[in-house]
Every structure is written in C-alpha cells, then in structure tokens.
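In response to the reviewer comment on reproducibility (Comment 2.3), we provide here a single inverse folding case reported in full, input and output, so that an independent group could reproduce the run without further information from us. The structure tokens appear first.
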C-alpha cells in the first residue's frame, strides 16, 4: 500500500500494517500488576473510565484514548544518523485515512519536530486532534535548543497551520473518545528499568512473541527525570551510540511531567522503535524521556490503551540500531 500523507509534500510513502495481540483490559491488569511489582514498591493497576484528558493535569487535545486505537511508527533513527535526511518531512493531516479510514483522529506521541518551521532540529510532543471536516486542533509542543553551552532552550505550541513533523515518530492514533482504559499507578522505583521499560518488559515476559502494543499518557507527579533535546543537525557524522550521546543535550526535567508515547512488547519484524515517550511540563521544559533520577519519591500515573494494529510508514531500507534508546 502507498499513500500521500501530505499533499503539500506530494510524497508517496510505503505503509505496512500488522495486527497486534489485543488482550482484554482485565487480563492486562493481572499481567502488569505482577510484572511491575519488581520495579516499584507500590503498584496499583486497574480498569477505569478515562478521565477527561483535556483537563488538568494532562493538557491533551482530546478527551479520551478510545475508538480504533492504532500505533504508528514513522521513519526512524536511520534518517537522522549518521547524517540527516532533510527530505524526510511528514504530515499528520491524512493519518487517519492511512490507518483504516478513521475520520476524526486524536494523535499523541514522540517524534522530531518540523525543522523548517522551527528553524532547527527539535523534539516534538505530538498532541493534536483532526476533525472530520479537516480542521486541526494542535496542542503539539516542540522543545528546541537555543544555546547548548548555556543549556538554554524553549518550549512552544505549534499553531494549527503547522501539522508537519520530520524524520521519525511513534504515535498512538485513536478516535479520542472517552472509554475504558488501564490506569497504572506506581510509586517508589526499586528496579533499574524506567517506567516504560518496566511496562514493556512485563508484557514481553508474559506474551512472548505475540506483539502487544500500547499508547497513552503518564504523569510523573514528583521528583525529576532525565531527558534529552536534540541540537540542530550534526555536520559531523554520528556513527556510534557514544557519538550520539556526546551530541545530545541532557538535563533533568522537573515534575509534574506529562509524557506521551507508545510501546510494543516485541517487534513483529517491522524494524520498530519498541518504546518512545516525549514529555513536557507547564514550566517551559520538554524533551525525550529516559528515566526518573529520584526513584525514592517517583510517582507515576499512566492512562493507557492497548492498540489493535500497528502501521509502519516509510520504513528505512538501509537500517541500523543506533539511537533507539
Ligand atoms: Zn525521542
């Protein structure tokens, strides 16, 4: 299947899709309660009615996560590393059509922001709603570095007229309706894995080679978490994980932190990034989530939905494994 994702860019992109194992929510409660108990001192997983995500503390662009939930994995680190492919610009506006003809769609997740708009490479916290009549309610934020040495950066909300992103993206797309979701509440991290890895590895342990994908939002309500912001594209090729880490700008973001993204227990052969969350707060901070640096007081509350399908768009033909953390 091929599609035109942004009339403006007039690009035909290859799209593959794969059904995901979508267990009942009650079953996931048992699997995650057990799996997360080795990662956190306090674990409470249950099925709840999704709170209105447009309100405090979430600040998302649609009420809920329900209605035809899908994961989408766009492009990938091979378009950033070792050197950037600037022609890898994508658009959100037709994404619902690509993912099975969904008319009204809510998209959240992690990706690289639209560099032509930002004037530089940047982190993107996707958070937008596309209505049936083609209107966009865009609350997507981008974090861009102004001065690496001084650690200066900005966080801004993209206007409704800017619905592009670049290079790579991992998104949850749904109809954005209220419905039943998983609430995952954990306190005091006692394991080495970050919150997302702990969820993902719990699923992998239980479901083995059956891919279970989830997406949603989590709040880290106390403490700090290590994040990065990508600087502008490197002129020097970044060939190794070490080159990449020397290039990235790392800092500790202050809670309360709102993180959006996706995870999948195992890659069903689509060259996926198996987990990816980006965060923002209301104090002008944003970036790519790594892990909390205050495990003693860490408190996470997530609202997640399992997805029915994964769509793989514009999979790199020449791939590598650098930069998937
Ligand atoms: Zn990222």
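Designed residues, in position order:
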């Amino acid at each position: 299947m091929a599609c035109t994702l942004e009339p403006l860019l007039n690009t035909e992109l290859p799209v593959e899709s794969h059904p995901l194992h979508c267990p009942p929510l009650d079953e996931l409660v048992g699997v995650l309660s057990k799996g997360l108990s080795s990662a956190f001192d306090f674990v409470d997983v249950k099925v709840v009615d999704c709170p209105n995500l447009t309100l405090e503390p979430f600040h998302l662009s649609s009420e809920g996560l329900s209605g035809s939930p899908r994961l989408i994995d766009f492009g990938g680190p091979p378009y950033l590393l070792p050197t950037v492919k600037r022609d890898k610009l994508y658009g959100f506006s037709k994404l619902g059509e690509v993912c099975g003809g969904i008319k009204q769609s809510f998209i959240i997740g992690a990706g690289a922001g639209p560099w032509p708009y930002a004037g530089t490479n940047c982190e993107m916290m996707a958070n937008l709603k596309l209505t049936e009549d083609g209107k966009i309610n865009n609350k997507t934020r981008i974090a861009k570095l102004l001065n690496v040495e001084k650690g200066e950066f900005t966080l801004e909300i993209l206007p409704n007229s800017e619905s592009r992103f670049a290079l790579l993206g991992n998104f949850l797309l749904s109809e954005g309706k209220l419905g039943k979701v998983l609430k995952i509440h954990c306190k005091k991290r006692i394991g080495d894995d970050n919150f997302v890895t702990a969820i993902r590895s719990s699923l992998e342990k239980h479901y083995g080679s059956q891919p279970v994908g989830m997406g949603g939002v989590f709040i880290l309500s106390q403490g700090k978490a290590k994040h990065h912001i990508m600087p502008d594209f490197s002129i020097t090729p970044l060939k190794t994980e070490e080159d990449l880490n020397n290039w990235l700008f790392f800092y500790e973001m202050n809670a309360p932190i709102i993180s959006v993204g996706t995870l999948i227990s195992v890659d069903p052969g689509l060259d996926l990034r198996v987990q990816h969350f980006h965060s923002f707060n209301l104090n002008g901070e944003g970036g790519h989530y790594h892990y909390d640096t205050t495990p003693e007081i860490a408190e996470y509350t997530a609202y997640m939905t399992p997805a029915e399908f994964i769509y793989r768009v514009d999979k790199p033909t020449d791939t590598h494994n650098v930069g998937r953390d």
